Amino acid sequence: MNNVTLIGMPGSGKSTIGVILAKALGYQFLDTDLVIQKQEKRKLSQIIAQEGPERFKEIENKVNASVDVTETVIAPGGSVIYCEEAMKHLRSIGKVVYLKISLESLSKRLGNLRGRGVLLKEGQTLKDLYEERVPLYEKYADIVVDEEGKDLEESLAAVLEIINTGA
Q: Which residues line the annotated binding site for substrate?
């Protein structure tokens, strides 16, 4: 129970905050999207294009459900919340922290979603995706950190404070 898993929308800062958080805690850092890419020997966007969203979710679920680490900050992909088995596992090995950000702020941060390997259904907009995912992030989160109006340092400080106080 000594891991921290960061969940949230693509662009919410999971990898960026995760690396710095790991250093601050003296933990390792694990980006499970990189594990998927290494295992599959191709980029996420290629997996989604070649295999389809459902097959990608199966791969993502398997990788995240088999994470076996201690004292690690884990940053899974934003779509991990569709993988019930993976989320149950991640919750069983540590705290799950939802990095919450507004749709407006997210729109400013994100570029090409498909190029990032974001799981979008045909015709789905960022707003649609946001509205679909937020309730799932909230469902699985042990802790919610609102990043609105915070820079990287302030977001990191908020995560550290909550983790350290056990709130």
A: 33, 78, 133
- Residues 136 and 149: their CA atoms lie apart, in Å, by 23
Give binding residues for Mg(2+) as ranges.
15
CA pair distance 135, 44, nearest whole angstrom = 24
Nearest by Cα to 89 from 59, 69, 112: 69
State the binding site: 11-16, 33, 78, 116, 133
* Cα 167 to Cα 165: distance, rounded to the nearest angstrom: 5
- d(CA 67, CA 70) in angstroms, rounded, equals 10
Token couple for 30: 């694990």
Euclidean distance between CA atoms 145 and 77, whole angstroms: 17
Q: What's the order of all strands across the beta sheet hosting 28-31?
A: 28-31, 72-75, 3-7, 94-100, 143-146
Residue range 85-133, pLDDT digits in tens:
999 999 999 999 999 999 888 877 776 565 555 667 777 788 898 999 9
Collect all residues with Cβ–Cβ distance below 8 Å to 40 and sequence separation of at least 6: 47, 59
Torsion angle defined by CA atoms of residues 103, 160, 20 and 156, in that order, rounded to the nearest 10 degrees = 40
- Residues shown for the chain: 167
Question: For the whole model, what pTM was predicted?
Answer: 0.90
Mark the binding-site residues for ATP, compressed into ranges: 11-16, 116
